Amino acid sequence: MTAAHTGMRVMVTAAAGGIGRAIAEAFASAGARVHVCDVDLTGLDDLIRANPSIGTSVADVSDPEQVAGFFEEALESLGGLDVLVNNAGIAGPTAPVEEVTPEDWTRTMAVNIDGQFYCTRLAVPHLKAAGGGAIVNIASTAGVLGYPLRAPYAASKWAVVGLTKTLAMELGEAGVRVNAICPGPVLGERMAKVAAAEAEAKGVSEEEVRAGYVKQVSMQRFIEPKEIAEMVLFLSGPSGRSISGQALGVDGHTETLRT
Fold first, then answer.
1. FRET label pair with 76: which of 26, 101, 123, 208, CA 20 to 30 Å apart?
2. Is 236 a residue whose pLDDT tops 80?
3. CA–CA separation, 207 vs 226, rounded Å?
4. Strand, helix or coil at 148?
5. Rounded CA gap, 95 and 101, in Å?
6. Torsion sign, CA atoms 8, 9, 11, 16
7. Global pTM value
8. Which residues are catalytically annotated?
9. Per-residue pLDDT for 73 more than 70?
10. Using an 8 Å Cβ cutoff, are 160 and 227 in contact?
11. pLDDT above 60 for 195
């Protein structure tokens, strides 16, 4: 896989930690040229120290002006684009729909789906100019199943899947393939915060919530960020040249999201 990705020009959003960092580091290890963004300055500094070859920008993907700045810096550094990974996303509120505020709804949508649109619209001309490439959008199992108490998050991730399938139809003739990855429960700080919020909303322990996540998965385990990264590399390389328009679960097979 390393030879296949050598010299590839890659942009990844929200890569200061978690899944995004695993993706950026996997590409860099495979010989790709990588430029990322995030709002977490501390996380970006840590990423640079561990991976000096990775370029970084500070940008909130929900702001189109900041996205434009990210692209200007990345394209100047990379000299073009072969792969865009739309990873940025937030958990949003954990609450019954009648308790979700318009502000929380709007913020969740702004990061999770608006941000993917802002990045994609700027990436497409460069992918076409390169003669084709790949866009990988990070969705969720909540983008193919309902998710009680997480209406904004689920709605935004269903939108990601719809955007993915539509873009695959639009861009196929240009040699640009577009796919979504739907992770299940992923080990890391973000999932820990989600579990804590759900435990508070339901009045149960965090251990009970985490056990419920595992129970929903046929393979009875959490997913590791590197497993998501490995799928991204597969989809963006020659082995994935005929895969487009798919919402691919990397989740151990989620049976249901109702606990």
1. 26
2. yes
3. 24
4. coil
5. 10
6. positive
7. 0.92
8. 153
9. yes
10. no
11. yes
